[in-house]
Amino acid sequence: MLDEELIETIVISIKKEKIKWYNPTFMIKKANGKWRKILDAKALNQQLADFHFKMHDSIEVKQTIGLGDWGTSLDLSSEFHHLVIQTESQPYLAFEFQNNHYKHRAMPFETKHSPIYFATAIELIMQQIRMKTEIRIINQVDNILLLHKNKDYQKSMTQQIIDTLKYFGFTINTEKWIKTGTEITVKQIAKLIGKLNYLRLQFQEASLFLNIMDHQKAQAAKLRGWNITMIMNKTAIPDINWLIAKLGANC
């Protein structure tokens, strides 16, 4: 992984005497068997000043999704690495591996300001897409939710938006794509949400997935009752499975 980041100039070598801050770095294994490099920036984050920025939260997601919506969730791969850090700030994002010293040239996702900087950058692209299409867009940092009532229009615009993002250098993670749904009763959805509620206390991402599922369940129950069958999109399931696996690894 380090070799790949060096080739892509995500990280670059730095002389030891020029380092201003060391950050512990380690690897964790993801649910799909691949490895993720973690830069422990907790100590650095305590030194960074706070500033306010409005992010799309789970409540806004629930309010935006309507009954009958067709949706696509685009997962951007290595999203923060598209942003280059100011040269004078790079020595604060240094780490050591096998007696060699490196610094991040591209932004890691572990600093507390990384989501804000990325959301600000990609929002400019999203604004242009909103102006030129009828697609409703919720930008959840590295996850972009596209919504529309018309299935064919939504499908066509999704491909155009993917092409636009690729034009600007972004890569779409297709490993989690699931194009079909599964039939499940509203009661079964409620039972599943109840079993997974403990994840809300552990991971912020879990609240988003569970809130979306809960919103779909509530709308279906209100319109047609608790015993009807609904089509549930399974896109969130791999993410929830990953969260459960991550929780188990930390226990």
Task: Provide a descriptive summary of the structure in words.
Residues 8-197 form the Reverse transcriptase domain. It comes from Streblomastix strix. InterPro entries: DNA/RNA_pol_sf, Rev_trsase/Diguanyl_cyclase, RT_dom, Viral_Replic_Matur_Polypro. This is Reverse transcriptase domain-containing protein. It is a single chain. Helix 3 (58-64) runs parallel beside helix 7 (204-224). The chain has helices at residues 2-7, 42-47, 58-64, 114-132, 151-167, 186-196, 204-224, 236-250; strands at residues 11-13, 25-29, 35-39, 70-77, 94-97, 100-104, 136-140, 143-148, 171-172, 181-185, 229-233. The protein has a four-stranded antiparallel sheet with strand order 7-8-4-9, with helices on one face. The protein has two domains: 2-60 and 73-172, HIV Type 1 Reverse Transcriptase, Chain A, domain 1; 178-250, no CATH class. With 251 residues, it is α+β, with helices and mostly antiparallel strands. It has eight helices and eleven strands. The chain is elongated, with a radius of gyration of 20 Å.
Number of helices: 8
Tell me the total number of β-strands.
Answer: 11
The main sheet orders its strands as 7-8-4-9
Low-pLDDT ranges? none
Shape: elongated
Mean pLDDT figure? 77
CATH class of the largest domain: Alpha Beta
Instruction: Name the CATH architecture of the largest domain.
Output: Roll
Termini separation (Å)? 26 Å
Q: In what range is the share of β-strand residues?
A: 15-25%
Salient structural properties:
Reverse transcriptase domain-containing protein, 2 domains, alpha+beta, elongated, HIV Type 1 Reverse Transcriptase, Chain A, domain 1, 251 residues, RT_dom, three-stranded antiparallel beta sheet
